[in-house]
Every structure is written in C-alpha cells, then in structure tokens.
Amino acid sequence: MRSANETSPGNFRRADGRRVATLRNAATVDGQLVDVHITGDRVAAVVPAENRPAGEHDLNLSGYLLLEAPAEPHAHLDKAFSFDEIRPPPGDLGNAIAAWEEYNPRLTVDGIADRARRTALRLLSNGTTAIRSHVNLLPGDAPLRGVQALVRVRTELAAAMDIQLVVLAPYSVDDTAIHAALDLGVDFVGGHPHHTPEPTANLRRLLRIAEERGCGVDIHTDEQLDPEMLTLEQLTHLVGDRPPARPVTASHCVSLGMTAPEVQARVSAAVAAAGIGVVTLPMTNLYLQGRDHPVATPRGITAVRALLDAGVRVAGGADNVRDPFNPLGRADALETAMLLVTAAHLTPQEAYRAVSSGAREVMGLPAAGPAPGAYADLLAIRASGLEDAIAAAPTDRFVLRRGRLVAASRSERSTVTRPAD
Fold it and tell me: Which of 149, 336, 355, 405 is placed for a possible disulfide with 112 were both Cys, Cβ 3.0 to 4.6 Å?
C-alpha cells in the first residue's frame, strides 16, 4: 500500500528548556520569511531569512508560521477534567453549579492539583505560556483546598509558564476566607455578584476587599441572558480611578450581547473610560446559555464588536475544560479563536489578537511576540497562514517562553493514494 506523508519529522527537536539563539526561516503572518534573533528572554532582532543551516542553539522553522504565544485569561484549573468523575447531566449554568457543589465534599488538594497540572501542561503544549485561573473557595471546614492545590501547581510550573490566580468567593463565604486565600498567594479578588441576592452589595464588598489588599479584581459579570442585568455598567461607576497595579477585569458579560445597539455603545464607552478589561468566553457560554430558547437560540456571548469599537481591551478565553460547565474543550487557544470568528464574527486577525496580545494586555503582562524588544514568548505552528492555523489547529508546534523551548509536538499522518497491486 502506497501512502503520502503530510508532515516530516526531520525538523523535530525535543523541548528541554534550553535557550534558543535564533529561529530560522520562520514565516510571519504577513508572508515574510525571517530569522528571529533572541538574546536572553527577549527578541533582539527580526531580519530577512538568510537561509543558513540551524546551529546547535537554533531552531529551523521552515514550513512553520511564527506567532505571539497565546495567553489564557480565564481558566478554572481547579475544575478542569472533572467531568468523568462527576458525570453531570447536560444542563444550563444553574445545573452545572449544582453538580459541582454536590461533588465538592469529595475534592482533595492532591486530586485538584493533579487535574490542574494536567490542564496547565496541555495548555502549554498547545502554545499558551500564561494562564489566569479562578479558584473556588469551597464549603465546609477546608475552604482553601483548591487554593492550596493551585498555588502548588503554580510553584511547580513557574519555570515554564506564568500562572495568575483569582479567588472565586461565593456569596455565603465570610471575608476571613478571602483574606486567607490572598495570604496564601492568590493575586486577585473575584466572585459572581449577579448570582447573589444583592448584586450591588456583593460587588461593593469584593471591591472593598481588593482595595484593602491593594490587588486587582476579576469579576464574573452578567453570565446570563437578561438584558436588564447590567452589573457591568454598575462596575464602571464603582471602580473609580484605580491605578494600573490594581486592574479591573469583567469576565463573561453575556447580557450585554442581548441589549439594544445604543445600550451596547453606552456601556462599552463607559467600560473603556473606566479602563476595565473584558474577557469573552464563547465555548462555555455557547454551551450553557440559551437552553430555554429552542427557537432563534441566542449566541450567549458578549457584544464583542461594540466593545472593540469603543476601544475596550478585549480578551478571549476558553473558560472551562471538560467539567460540569463544559464537557468538551482541547485547552487550545486556536479553538477559542475559531469560535470568536464563527460566533462573534471577528476576523481571524482580531480573533487571534484576543487570545494573544489582547489577553496579555488584560492580564497585565508585558508585550511578547516576534518583535524587537518583546518577550520571546512564541508559538511556531506548521501552517500556511493564520487562517490555516485557526482552521486546522495543526499538532506540529514549538513553544518558547522567554526564549526557552518549553514545549514541542509533532504529528505523522499518512493516507492511501492507491491500493497496492
């Protein structure tokens, strides 16, 4: 039987964490072939490709597209890959929350850490070099199990990726547990005011604690289809003049997508003026929202175009990966980008920006990518262009984090061209 090979393993180099001096013969999104010289953790120069053989500390990227590495602005590492353990029935957000809460007593620090580590490494292998993860405070006598697990994983993986943590505080938990999570090293205060009996009071409480601790906030905001629920607009009035060191992020913002264009424009302008970053999460919200609308089912994502037009910093994230809130997901930013193209009607360029530089901006991370002076957080993927990368999500990838090769993967595929005689 004769076969045609689609990929060649000849260029493969295993990830070992060593520094890379030069990336040779890489294609850029605008079609150029370049050599990228790296000094330390930054890109020193990007020059036309010289067609030189790759040296011992170089990487030959012939046939690869070179991109800024993605960042994941909204994950739930404590929940990820729990679907097979919980086996919840399909349902909306309320059902997912109930399934997760029912399972909470069986959660252990080691079990959470194992699933979180697996998810973080899957993200890394797909190109993501920075993650912001929310972590629930749990009911009972040990509310910090998830926090302890994710702090452990962050420490273990610190050489390979950046992990930011947000304490996700239920309405019923007291301030002491939130402060204890921050004492353990959590970076941001978070919650979901729109799911509480008193949304405004809960939002004020979370902002007060963040102000006391001098940290930022990342709030689950309006994760529902009610156009009258605009906690996002309340947030713009409450944040005041917060310094860049205490950033404000609003995640989900689904209900804004259900409002009239003039409301979207008004709220988006207020969000931009307040300096709030918005994270849209198409996969989970498309899965959970709209189940009670069997006809003309709403898309369940925020007003991305209106926010971008207003100059808001917009990021795209995967949210949940194979847990009660979403039974699927590849932990791949290209999957999120594809959904932003198909469901939010962004261009491929806008969609990839949302999962890379846009995500880094919302997360407060320094600039990265194939540009002089930027951090050498880079994804090289075997693709003919950005559209091909988003559409096909090829397995063949090299991932650099601050100039070090931290992940590499390849695929081999063969197909029959004609049967053997």
Answer: 149
